[in-house]
Amino acid sequence: MKNDETNVFVYGSLKRGYALHSLLAGQKFLGTANTKPIYKLYDCGHYPGLIAASLDGISVTGEVYCVDNTCLQRLHDAEGVDEGLYSYGIIDLLPPFSNLPCHAYFYLLPTDKLKNCGSEWPATA
Questions:
Q1: pTM of the model
Q2: Are strands 28-34 and 61-68 parallel, antiparallel or unpaired?
């Protein structure tokens, strides 16, 4: 990984086959990954929201990409980081990605009225 690249875990509309995946055009797909079981995933409608939940979390499935700084800014804009919809921070992944520094977007709005997705969005059951 170069100095101007970052590893990003995506778990919703940025995944292959979903609405915002085109924002990752030209970036390197590293593989499908699972988080440590310390997160929860909620259905926000057209996209999901991931939150940290160390006491009752589960493992969430997503994809890891190595992105350049230009792409990272596009992702920040799409995820509403400046508007306070998501924050951007380190995420803990299971092997084989456990030693790879990786970031993700964490949902900042209340989740008490949202449906829990389980391990994947969209929820399969």
A1: 0.95
A2: antiparallel
Residue positions annotated with a catalytic role: 79
pLDDT value, residue 125: 56
Domains of the chain (ranges plus CATH)?
5-113 (3.10.490.10)
CB 102 within 8 A of CB 91: yes
| pLDDT value of residue 28 | 98
Average pLDDT of span 23-48? 97
Non-local (6+) Cβ contacts of 40 within 8 A are 50, 51, 53, 56, 57, 58, 60, 111, 116
Secondary structure element (H or E) that encloses residue 78, with its range: helix 69-79
d(CA 32, CA 95): 11
Measured distance CA(83)–CA(57) in Å, rounded: 26
Return d(Cα 56, Cα 76) in angstroms, integer. Answer: 28
